[in-house]
Amino acid sequence: MNNTYDKIHVAIAFCIAGHQACGQKRKFSGAEYFTHPIGVSTLVAKYGGTDDMICAALMHDLIEDTQIKIETIRDTFGENVARMVLGLTKVSKLEDGDRATRKAIDLEHTAKQCPDTKTIKLCDVIDNLSDVVDGDPEWAKQYVLEKELLLEVLKEGDEQAWNFANRMVDAVKFTLMGDDL
Q1: Active-site hit among 32, 51, 52, 64
Q2: Which positions ≥6 away from 1 have C-beta within 8 Å?
Q3: Which of 32, 51, 65, 148 is flagged as catalytic?
Q4: Is 64 part of the annotated catalytic residue set?
């Protein structure tokens, strides 16, 4: 690709096409799923992310949710973007055990990632949090506790993004659990 503009626009096209091809919608809002990775990429840009980070943010759910393969991403966007996308892709499988076991496996995987990948993950947390809380406040209680653990391994990401995500998790936790803390 000749320039940044082309690279990011191709990543947007991959994002939209991949998620629309499988008819994926946001769980709680019913919105087109691609609105989430676009929201994450916008946050990555806000926090000073590189073009590769923006591209990886746009494609961060493609491997686990669509038919797009990592080889296609690598061939189109290069090794750095592919590495970040893989770093953002869940590695646990249903057969690994219950939700807590799978989350522990994915947490260990995330802890090993580079600061740029951790920054994207922070933006993913920020973008997901309000959707989950608005969609199912009862389930959000478990979700916010999982995100609290996740934040511990994301401290190497962008400091401003981490601080914002941490404040958001604290506020949601207080709002949802109040006296139960």
Answers
A1: 64
A2: 7, 10
A3: 65
A4: yes
